[in-house]
Amino acid sequence: MGRVWKYGNDVNTDVIFPGKYTYTVTDPEEMASHALEDLDPDFAGRVQKGDIIVAGSNFGCGSSREQAASCLKYAGVEAVIAESFARIFYRNAINFGLPAIVSPEAAGVLKSGETADIDLSGGHIHAIDKVYQFVPFPEFMMEIMRDGGLLAHIKKELEANG
């Protein structure tokens, strides 16, 4: 169960993780401290592990910087629910083990401060008195997210296969 942080359409990678830090900030804790600072200066100081970002369409548009997905993961964000995602952000999120859930219905209804619970394998978002459906992730993507991201998943696979 996570608290919802609601944002609008076209939240770009430059406001998710400001470009001025792209080549200078690499420590996960410091990256988390700059998450969404240009859009919501209070976010990094108030976000809690398990919180959920909800947004409109085209979340993660802009540059392909992977730090936009990783800083949210490092900040403790459980998932991002949006009407739609920019393709590169979507893939970067999965690569970091951050579920990027396409659910226009939930994205249109959920509000900041509400709580929601996500069932990734079942494709359900439970919020208030309603359940919103989304297409469940394929098993290979679930494995990547369960393992904590693509690099951790590959390492696990290599260790298992000797």
Q: What is this structure, in a nutshell?
A:
The protein has 162 residues and is of the alpha/beta class. The chain contains eight helices and seven strands, in the order βαααβαβαβαβββαα.
Describe it.
A hairpin with a 2-residue loop joins strand 6 (124-127) and strand 7. It contains eight helices and seven strands. The longest helix is centred in the last third of the chain and has 11 residues, at 150-160. Helix 4 (67-74) packs across helix 5 (87-95) and helix 7 crosses helix 8 (150-160). The chain has helices at residues 13-16, 28-33, 43-46, 67-74, 87-95, 104-109, 139-146, 150-160, and strands at 2-6, 52-55, 79-82, 100-102, 115-119, 124-127, 130-133. It has a single domain (2-136), classed as Aconitase, domain 4 (Alpha-Beta Barrel), CATH 3.20.19.10. It is α/β, with parallel strands linked by helices and 162 residues long. Helices cover 35% and strands 18% of the residues. The protein has a seven-stranded mixed sheet with strand order 4-3-2-1-5-6-7.
